[in-house]
Design a protein that fits this description.
This protein has 30 helices and 21 strands.
Length: 788
């Protein structure tokens, strides 16, 4: 294995090939990479393969394959590009055109100099307008052949097998078939005890009280090296990262088979030694690995890795085969806890706690045992695709977003905090005036006593017969009384001040100067992402205070903020899922669905009537998607319950398929026990069979909304994956910062803006074929609020 930091494998191969040729050694490079053809000469040949088998390419073979001699390969590839290596080439000039140009002019530089002599217009314009990109492409395909690699070729000569050492190693790794095969060639002697062969007297075997468990603590570097070799040799393994309360790693453990595990304790072995040797294992795309809560594991490992190896590329998990945390969530998104101990209790009947230093069962072993059980359940539930195609690939994207963070204007927040302070003082005075006395506004007990004193009318009381001060009761009372309206406003302003204006500056990372939220994949029952510390999902969009908070989230110096927001995605999905012809037609024609509803449902004729009715139509459209009833709609819009009931009836008479959906889905869910998104994400709703009317009605509303909101969440996640893959392929510097419901927020360099807009709009709007078009609104600005 030869590698040199900062250089690709092609450059190492090129350097080794040329060094060997200079010493008179004949070289064969085994590769199908066209780039390698530039190295071919009398002593260097290429072995490649196609459907007919292996071919040896010399100078003539390169000419037959690519149409040019080896010394023209970089010019050819620089023009035609290479998508597999992200080499853009000359736009509009493919392989045929590149061959013609190289045959005519001999080189890229000559072609760029004489671009006006090119016959074909598109080729001519491409050479004229993209000279720097073409030169960069030529540079990208040029292999370095003079890297500072100092090696004696004789040391690479194949040596005969040391059968005794092989027997010992293969026995330890339990390669039983290979061990038996070795015995055919030699009689295995006892291992010798030469000085360079340390006796492994430090191995600690721990056989647990539970029958069949064999865990060992790795107690020496030699033993750790054997574990690393086994990681490389095995097709797959499970692992666990265990940290203390300060989020510092205390140990790692690895399991290759049920009941067996090796524990690497950082108090015994050097973390630097361990992480350096394991970083390539985790990043290797051929070694399948499983872990519980992969994003947390990645965060812990890279926190330690950055301290030990500043400036190095971070660890990443290629070939992440399973994450038991995500698998368990998909199987039951309403479970609440997906801790390893909880999953062990549910699926393995293991009750022991997983406490550091007192763990009876090893975490890696438990993870390994859970993997096949959860995989089978995912297959049975039809969830395997959403697991492997959406949730697992999303982990790396969310991790990157968390590490990137977002810049915050502390000055704007300080000013906002002062303004909110003054506003709260005004509200306090108004509340005292409405109450007729001073009291502790934050005390539910005192607020309830004021409500009782003022004889507020509500049907909802506490068990002691007092008026409740819950948010639901306040909303009801606010339709009739000023005091609860002011209290609601006070609570909202105080929450925004405490949660954002005052808290955000304290959350700024001193090293990055940015706020780093945590994105959660396993919290919501619909599949939507949530965020915490800080929660950026609940910043109000339409209130003035919410807008000012958004204004404090700014682009880094030299960047712009790009917002990409799905337009009415849930209503579009309602049209697709129900198949309602009128709603579908409106979206297909690009009509404003709220205006159409104002006309069709509420009979608005004139422009002024439509303007007035559109607000009611909008509330009804979105309310129906959330299963709202007459009372909820009346509360939202400020109309009587009778008017709201009439509006809903008119709505159902207009959009008949929507009514069918609302009536049939709860019954189907009652029968099936679950509701699903278009992609199979499920949610269990046991309360659909409740005798309690309120609980049953809420479950019915959730059953109606989940396929819509859950599918919207799936589409956003799918778009994120496609967009980030495209950014990576084109090596763009644009960064995905936030995902808030139906909106994605990016930090974009101005010179990349147009291309990024093209990618984002295309991938979001074409993420999945629906009966109605998906539409994305793009806006650009210096902060999250001021976007155009």
């Amino acid at each position: 294995l030869l590698k040199l930091s900062g250089y690709e494998a092609d450059d190492v191969i090129g350097t080794m090939a040329c060094k060997a040729a200079a010493e008179g050694i004949n070289v064969t490079i085994v590769s199908n990479d066209k780039d390698m053809c530039q190295l071919i000469n009398e002593q260097i040949k290429l072995m490649r393969w196609d459907k007919n088998g292996y071919l040896i390419c010399d100078r003539e073979g390169v000419k037959n394959w690519l149409g040019v001699a080896p010394n023209k390969v970089v010019d050819l590839l620089g023009l035609m590009g290479d998508s597999s290596d992200n080499v853009p080439g000359a736009p509009g000039i493919g392989e045929k055109g590149a061959l013609q140009i190289i045959e005519q002019f001999g080189s890229i530089e000559s072609a760029l100099e004489k671009w006006s002599e090119v016959t074909k217009k598109t080729y001519r314009e491409s050479l004229r307008d993209h000279a720097e990109q073409i030169r960069l492409s030529r540079k990208l395909v040029t292999i370095e052949t003079a890297l500072p690699i100092d090696i004696e070729f004789e040391t690479l000569r194949l040596q005969p097998i040391n059968y005794s050492a092989a027997q010992e190693l293969f026995s330890e790794l339990e390669f039983n078939t290979v061990t038996r095969d070795l015995s055919k060639f030699t009689t295995i002697r006892e291992p010798d005890n030469t000085p360079n062969k340390k006796a492994n007297n430090n191995k600690v075997e721990k056989v647990d009280v539970a029958e069949g468990l064999s865990y060992r603590k790795v107690a020496s570097e030699e033993e750790f090296n054997s574990i690393v070799r086994k990681l490389w040799a095995d097709d797959s393994f499970s692992f666990a990262v265990v940290a203390d309360s300060s989020q510092e790693i205390r140990k790692l453990s690895f399991s290759f088979a049920q009941g067996q595990a090796a524990e690497v304790d950082f108090d015994i072995l050097s973390p630097k030694l361990v992480l350096e040797k394991l970083s390539d294992v985790w990043s290797n795309g051929f070694l399948q690995k499983s872990v519980h809560d992969s994003k947390s594991a990645l965060t812990l490992l890279n926190k330690a890795y950055r301290k030990l190896f500043p400036g190095r590329a971070e660890i990443h998990f290629d070939a992440l085969k399973d994450d038991t945390f995500l698998a368990a969530y998909l199987l039951n998104p309403g479970q609440g806890s997906y801790s390893l101990s909880e999953l062990a209790r549910i699926h393995l009947n293991v009750e022991q706690p997983f406490t550091l230093g007192q763990t009876q069962y090893d975490e890696a072993d438990i993870t390994g045992r859970l993997v096949p059980i959860l995989r089978e359940k995912l297959q049975q539930a039809g969830l395997e695709d959403i697991y492997t195609e959406i949730e697992l690939p999303l982990v790396a994207i969310l991790y990157d977003m968390e590490q990137i963070g977002i810049a915050v204007d502390t000055g704007a927040l300080a000013e906002l905090s002062h303004q909110l302070d003054e506003f709260l003082k005004v509200l306090t005075t108004e509340i005292y005036s409405a109450a007729g006395q001073e009291f502790n506004i934050n005390s539910p007990q005192q607020l309830g006593e004021i409500f009782e004193k003022l004889s507020f009318d509500t049907s909802k009381k506490t068990k002691t017969g007092k008026i409740s001060t819950s948010a639901e009761v306040l909303e009801e009372l606010a339709t009739k009384y000023e005091l609860p309206r002011k209290v609601i406003e006070y609570r909202e302003v105080a929450k925004l001040k405490n949660t954002y204006a005052d808290a955000l500056p304290k959350l700024i990372d001193q090293k990055t100067g940015r706020v780093h939220t945590t994105f959660n994949q396993t919290v919501t029952t619909t599949g939507r992402l949530s965020s915490s510390n800080p929660n950026l999902q609940n910043i109000p969009i339409r209130t003035e205070v919410g807008k000012k908070i958004r204004k404090a989230f700014v682009a880094a110096s030299g960047y712009k903020v790009l917002s990409a927001d799905y337009s009415q995605i849930e209503l579009r999905l309602l049209a697709h899922i129900t198949g309602d012809p009128k709603m579908t037609e409106a979206f297909q024609k690009g009509e404003d669905i709220h205006t159409k509803t104002a006309i069709e449902v509420f009979g608005a004729k004139t422009e002024q009537e439509q303007k007035v009715a559109r607000r009611l139509a909008k509330a009804t459209n979105f309310g129906i998607a959330y299963g709202v009833g007459a009372f909820g709609l009346s509360q939202n819009v400020g109309i009587s319950r009778k008017e709201a009931k009439e509006a809903i009836e008119n709505y159902y008479a207009t959009y008949k398929q929507v009514r069918n959906y609302m009536e049939e889905l709860p019954e189907k869910a009652r029968k099936d026990g679950v509701v699903k998104t278009l992609f199979g994400r499920l949610r269990k709703l046991p309360d659909l069979n409740q005798t309690n009317h309120n609980l049953r009605a809420r479950a019915e509303r959730e059953a109606i909304n989940m396929p819509i909101q859950g599918t919207a969440a799936d589409l956003v996640k799918m778009a994120m994956i496609k967009i980030c893959k495209k950014f990576k392929a084109e090596k763009l510097q644009t960064r995905l910062l936030l995902q808030v419901h139906d909106e994605l927020l990016f930090e974009v360099l101005p010179n990349e803006m147009e291309r990024v807009k093209e990618i984002v709009k295309k991938e979001m709007e074409q993420v999945y074929p629906l009966n109605v078009p998906l539409v994305v609104d793009l806006k650009v600005g210096d902060n999250w609020m001021e976007l155009k």
